[in-house]
Amino acid sequence: MTLLEVDNLKVHFPIRRGLFKNVTDYVRAVDGVSFELHPGEIYGLVGESGSGKSTIGKSIVNLHRVTSGNILFQGKNITHLTNTEMKPFRKEIGMIFQDPYSSLNPKKCVLDIIAEPLRNFHRLTPKQEKEIVQAYLEKVGLSPDSIYKYPYEFSGGQRQRIGIARTLTLKPKLIIADEPVSALDVSVQAQVLNFLLDLQKEFQLTYLFIGHDLGVIRHICDRIGVMYRGRIVEEGTSQEIYENPQHIYTKRLISAIPELELINRKKKALFRKQMAEEYKKTYAHFFDENGRAYDLKSITPTHKVALP
Ligand SMILES: Nc1ncnc2c1ncn2[C@@H]1O[C@H](COP(=O)(O)OP(=O)(O)OP(=O)(O)O)[C@@H](O)[C@H]1O
Ligand SMILES: [Mg+2]
Questions:
Q1: Measuring from atom 11 of ligand 1, which residue has the nearest CA?
Q2: pLDDT digit string (tens) for 106-141?
Q3: What is the pLDDT of residues 143-178, one digit of tens each?
Q4: By three-state DSSP, how is residue 177 classified?
Q5: Is there a single domain that holds both residue 122 and residue 183?
Q6: Which atom of ligand 1 sits closest to the CA of residue 47?
Q7: Of 12-16, 99-103, 297-301, the least confident
Q8: pLDDT of residue 115
Q9: Which residues span the domain enclosing 115?
Q10: Residues 72 and 80 sit within 8 Å (Cβ to Cβ)
């Protein structure tokens, strides 16, 4: 069974210029993206800044107007729902936003921030509400006494945990985690990642995990979609993407992962140099005359590459 199906999704933002703000062109942020998520899996979307990853995530939770294509959740088409129609799905699909500094309302205390989604769906007494919020605070490793504090009193990592607790209270089936650790200190990154993985096991969650750090993605994702300029250029299991990359953009991304082992550094530097040369020589082969990546073609049952 498929939990989420994204089918030929396009999200184009109008560019307006001049006195009358006429639409002169479009930013093709997402330009024909398809992928599926199966229950319990972690699917990673990677790609450079501006490649359209967040736009896909936000489109799934109905924060962007979709230009064309379809988004199906448990077989139901949720592409063009109104806010009211979308409400039952807000319980099932949670989103952890990219920026822990701007995604929490600074005027609300932690209790209100975390309880807000609960209030939209359940009738709880203040006591029940407080108990649930405190239980989730503990789950994310924060003190239950924090409920009356405000976002400014927390570090970035702690704020991200507050955002995670808020997303979790409704026990969503699908969580879209948009770079949940990118804004955090390296020292807390691993802690938050491990925490997200524990939760996945505990609640049998499905994750759409967005990131640009292939080193992180590799360790946590079952399958990966590599994005470049609004298109998926390669998709496969983590192993296929890392050990047998086929698209020149994927190869370059992988060659850019820093090598931590001292003895492998020389080898890696050489590989990076080779990739840079291969990139220059073969780039044109991977894109059509408009510079657009080709449609994906299957090369194994799980591995797809955008080839002519
Ligand atoms: N609301 C908007 N209006 C106009 N253009 C937008 C809007 N949101 C995103 N874009 C543009 O769409 C493109 C994709 O943006 P998006 O935020 O999806 O990229 P991203 O892959 O998440 O990048 P990053 O890794 O930096 O978070 C960018 O060119 C961006 O400027
Ligand atoms: Mg983003």
A1: 29
A2: 999 999 999 999 998 889 999 999 999 999 898 888
A3: 999 999 999 999 888 898 899 899 988 889 999 999
A4: strand
A5: no
A6: 21
A7: 99-103
A8: 95
A9: 100-171
A10: no
Tell me how far the alpha carbon of residue 66 lies from the centroid of ligand 1, in angstroms. Answer: 14
216 and 113 housed in the same domain: no
Ligand located closest to 56 CA: 1
CA distance 1 to 41: 12
**What pTM was estimated for this model as a whole?**
0.92
Q: What is the pLDDT of residue 199?
A: 85
48 CA: nearest ligand 1 atom:
25
Identify which ligand lies nearest to the alpha carbon of 45: 1
Q: Is the pLDDT of residue 203 over 90?
A: no
Residue 292 to residues 108, 122, 123, 171, 248, Cα–Cα distance (Å): 45, 47, 50, 39, 14
Question: Which residues have CB under 6 Å of ligand 1?
Answer: 13, 27, 29, 47, 49-55, 98, 212
Q: How far apart are CA 163 and CA 48, in angstroms?
A: 24
CA nearest ligand 1 atom 28, residue: 50
Q: Are 195 and 160 in contact (CB under 8 A)?
A: no
Nearest CA to ligand 1 atom 17: 54
Q: Ligand 1, from 31, 53, 233: best to mutate by most atoms within 8 Å of Cβ?
A: 53
Q: Domain check: are 197 and 297 in the same one?
A: yes
Instruction: Examine the pLDDT at 12 and tell me if it is beyond 80.
Output: yes
User: Which of 48, 54, 176, 228 should be mutated for ligand 1, with most atoms under 8 A from CB?
Assistant: 54
Could you tell me if 111 and 135 lie in one domain?
Answer: yes
Ligand 2 centroid–CA 278 distance in Å is: 28
Per the structure, the count of domains in the chain is 2
Q: Are residues 149 and 290 in the same domain?
A: no
